[in-house]
Description:
Blueprint: H1 6-13, H2 17-36, H3 50-61, H4 68-78, H5 89-95, H6 112-127, E1 136-148, E2 174-182, E3 188-193, H7 198-210, E4 215-221, E5 239-243, H8 255-265, H9 273-289, H10 291-298, H11 302-308
Parallel strand pairs: 1-4, 4-5
Antiparallel strand pairs: 1-2, 2-3
Helix pairs in contact: 1-2, 6-11, 8-9, 9-10
Amino acid sequence: MEGEATRKVADQLGRSQATIQSWINKFRSRGIEGLLEKGKGIGPPSRLTPEMQQAMTARLGQGKWRTARDAWKWLKENHDVGDLKESVIYKYLGKCEGRLKATRPCNPQKDPEAEQEFRATLAEKMFNLKIPSESRVKLWVYDEMRYGLHPLTRKMWCRRGIRATAPSKRRFENAFLYGALEVGGKGAEFLFTPTLDKQWDRSFLQQLARSDTQATHIVIGDGAGFHHKAADNALPTNLRILTLPACCPELNPAQKLWDIVKDGICNQLWEDLQTLEDAITERIRPYWEDAKRVASLIGSGYLPSELNAFPNSDFLSFNC
């Protein structure tokens, strides 16, 4: 369409000149539909019927299979495909939009209605905190992570036929890292602590309040026993607390950060906690230096939309 020769187009796309010419002929005769039409292969026809595909897609949506072999056994038990080769199941899973994913723990005691209610009414809950009308508002989500000298092991790339190994020595000295991400804001705050208790939790909340003394800070966290609650009088006057529903960690995007930290410290032996903390500091440094990295963790879910509906909020838009 731009007047280029077919040979030049073929070179740019990494295809043969004959292939480019066949595409042009299909487009001229049938338009986009002709280009998108797939020809029939020379192999045997697929035995995946529409009914089987619908049933497999439904079970994939429920997370019913841990391995492809589990799906293969289910097909053999529920459909007339007893002679189906196990290797074919990977093609069937792909056609049903199946992907092998890492699981995330989910507490069976979670109340889905409470989770949905928190998502939908966060702005209303913020209105009820009695924040001065002239005050700017900053919204934070915070959490904490334990780290220690006992090695953390994770998958690594290795040549086929070579066993992947990582150094390991059992040591039980550990400490904790508090972290808070500002929703739609300018960065993050962190604090290393030797333990988790009310005193250290108060210290971290005071750190958040001092980060901008002219603003009111709304801090969202879980209901852990060492976390402060809204009724605590020991909190700074420019700070408010909102507690997440029980057993709903997916409502707190701050937890995503800990996987990123652990990827940077795994499969290594650390001489002492100070050396380990130096490595963790370099891992989290980009999150207090670059607001866009924080925005990528927060995402575009309920937190930015609810904050954007609240007046006087410090809300920045990022195209991440």
